[in-house]
């Protein structure tokens, strides 16, 4: 039976970068891979078409799919919508609805792009870290939340941060197993000196760690982690943390790679069904101009084959093809240095397909 | 009448770096400045002496003082104490007790130390940003917090994030006024696309901003801010944010300065009474060896004269003296390059006093 992929291009550059990812899928299908795909709406595009950022049609298709490939959602067109139908709610909705609790964000420094980085070459050369962010708990979904009058009668806004033992256990298992396949070092990031949520987090991570004696576990406060990521990122192998700290640290770490245009991500459920997306946004400023960098989306296709379809061979081929086009000097605007020839989205996609 | 300074050296290197700051105070007093000081305990030292990290004696002295100078607290000796008496509770206690809601953390890149930074020189050359962190609200002090059984009967840890209108108003005023004295640009950092607390935060900041039409106000999500600080830090002038986001971003930003050993901070109440401290920790690994960098503590003395005593002239002199010793090539271990001669804590303190 064919593996079913649901494609959600999303907003602004989303459709442009996804078109290049589809070229990769087409090539693999032509080679005989048993895959098929269909398209759906998420975010602003879904609001435009069906009045909701995560409409029932998308929900149904997402449940039936084996994997989901997403472009990027959001943008100025939707900024003034009521919060409940803003594009972000589409992302948060699909994550929660499908139970995509494990967000894998590799940060890899491509030698060829060292010039594009704010960091000194020696700081990032050879960098290869994996940030594992819990994606369906924490302050993102905690109840109660809202507005109320505080003890002094003043209006206040409030949210609830929380993690339960099973939530921490399952992300911890993913983290230790990921570390086992890599350099066997796991750093758990929390704010245990201040937060009750973090105290439970740390307790449970330590407990789960007893089942993985081959992995060296360490703990770091989130403020220190934000500093160490910049000071000496190569000290890390796998980092595991909660939803909000992971949001912040993984975006920070993306800069170690030179450009956010290079970084894919995977969000997995308990069965390794996953949603794959570039970590960059919908880039309204360059939308419709054929300028966007499709590599993070193409690398997301690679992650899909690696994690959901268990085809490390194809993932490795895609990763290698991307490295090859970089070595060939192909550069979209975001990764080009002054004086380098800049190519467009399509040309970059074609180059990867050729390299494949 | 003499201005009263309470000195809280704290733990590990705290006493060593404070001894150098006192030399600066002694010089200024000898010059005729009307200041006097006394010593007290905070953190682990206070626990050792009086059984509590913020004991009544310190509380009384802190209330009576015009300003407080702190070294650094915490360390392995105290890590296994019950949470209620851990050194961090001393810091959190004094902040909350004295209403020190406005935490000013300048991040300045010293030209002389560019070699010590992970960043390319062009990224940080001339960098001068101010991070303003709200320090007495947010998830640090929110109630309820603790452990409970969730709807599924699983144990969970939880905390409450919250900000009230007056809390946001007062930090916003400090931020706009700081921006007015600088380059008139203020960036407010929140997570308004997800958090109710941030929605209120953003609303209030916009409202307060109407009273400061000369300041250009912008807003940024915290994940993006973590990225932009690394990508292009010079885009910022003043950043204002809540307690937990500020904790993370200011530590990240400290690395832009090359070493955390160079950065002072001020925590002010509504009357500009303040607690001044280096942002680095108590460095147990090098404690007692006379190696620690006292410059951040000495620069904290400068901030005290600037913000609480309204003596920008003395603050400028101290800042200039620190720059001069750097130009003279004086380096403690944390800011030295391979091959450079390393001096000790005392020698560095003496060099600043000589430069003064
Ligand atoms: C759009 C937003 C809700 C989302 C998040 O905070 O999770 C984004 O920043 C991300 O990291 O995917
Ligand atoms: C020690 C800790 C409680 C404290 C904080 O988180 O505020 C520290 O990290 C700081 O930034 O001063």
UniProtKB/TrEMBL annotation, chains A, B:
Matches recorded under InterPro entries: IsoCit/isopropylmalate_DH_CS, IsoPropMal-DH-like_dom, Isopropylmalate_DH
Cofactor binding notes: Binds 1 Mg(2+) or Mn(2+) ion per subunit.
Regions annotated as coiled coil: none
Binding site for NAD(+): 75-88, 281-293
Domain of life: Bacteria
Keywords: Amino-acid biosynthesis, Branched-chain amino acid biosynthesis, Cytoplasm, Leucine biosynthesis, Magnesium, Manganese, Metal-binding, NAD, Oxidoreductase
Enzyme class name: oxidoreductase
Required cofactor(s): Mn(2+); Mg(2+)
GO biological process: L-leucine biosynthetic process
Residue stretches making up the Isopropylmalate dehydrogenase-like domain: 4-352
Location(s), subcellular: Cytoplasm
Catalytic activity: (2R,3S)-3-isopropylmalate + NAD(+) = 4-methyl-2-oxopentanoate + CO2 + NADH
One Pfam family here: Iso_dh
Pathway: Amino-acid biosynthesis; L-leucine biosynthesis; L-leucine from 3-methyl-2-oxobutanoate: step 3/4
Assembly and oligomerization: Homodimer.
Protein name: 3-isopropylmalate dehydrogenase
Organism: Solimonas fluminis
């Amino acid at each position: 039976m064919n593996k079913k992929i649901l494609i959600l291009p999303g907003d602004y550059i989303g459709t442009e970068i996804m078109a290049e990812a589809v070229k990769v899928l087409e090539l693999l299908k032509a080679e005989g891979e048993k895959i098929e795909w269909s398209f759906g709406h998420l975010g602003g595009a879904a609001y435009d078409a069906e009045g909701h950022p995560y409409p029932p049609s998308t929900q149904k298709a997402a449940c039936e799919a084996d994997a989901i490939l997403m472009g990027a959602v959001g943008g100025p067109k939707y900024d003034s919508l009521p919060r409940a139908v803003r594009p972000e709610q589409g992302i948060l909705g699909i994550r929660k609805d499908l139970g995509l609790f494990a967000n894998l964000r590799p940060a890899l420094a491509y030698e060829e792009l060292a010039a594009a980085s704010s960091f000194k070459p020696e700081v990032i050369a050879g960098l290869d870290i994996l940030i594992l962010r819990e994606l369906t708990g924490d302050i993102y979904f905690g109840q109660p939340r809202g507005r109320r009058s505080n003890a002094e009668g003043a209006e206040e806004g409030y949210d609830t941060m929380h993690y339960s033992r099973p939530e921490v256990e399952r992300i911890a298992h993913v983290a230790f197993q990921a570390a086992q396949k890599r350099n066997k070092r796991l750093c758990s990031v929390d704010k245990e000196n201040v937060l009750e949520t973090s105290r439970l987090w740390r307790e449970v991570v330590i407990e789960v760690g007893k089942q993985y004696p081959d992995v060296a576990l360490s703990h770091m406060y989130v403020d220190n982690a934000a500093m160490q990521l910049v000071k000496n990122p190569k000290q890390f192998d796998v980092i595991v943390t909660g939803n909000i700290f992971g949001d912040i640290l993984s975006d920070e770490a993306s800069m170690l790679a030179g450009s956010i245009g290079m970084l894919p991500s995977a969000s997995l459920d308990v069965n390794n069904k996953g949603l794959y997306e570039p970590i960059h946004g919908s880039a309204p400023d360059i939308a419709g101009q054929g300028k966007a960098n499709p590599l993070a989306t193409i690398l997301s296709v690679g992650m899909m084959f690696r994690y959901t379809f268990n085809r490390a061979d194809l993932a490795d081929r895609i990763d290698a093809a991307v490295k090859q086009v970089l070595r060939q000097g192909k550069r979209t605007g975001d990764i080009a240095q002054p004086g380098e020839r800049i190519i467009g989205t399509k040309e970059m996609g074609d180059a990867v397909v050729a390299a494949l």
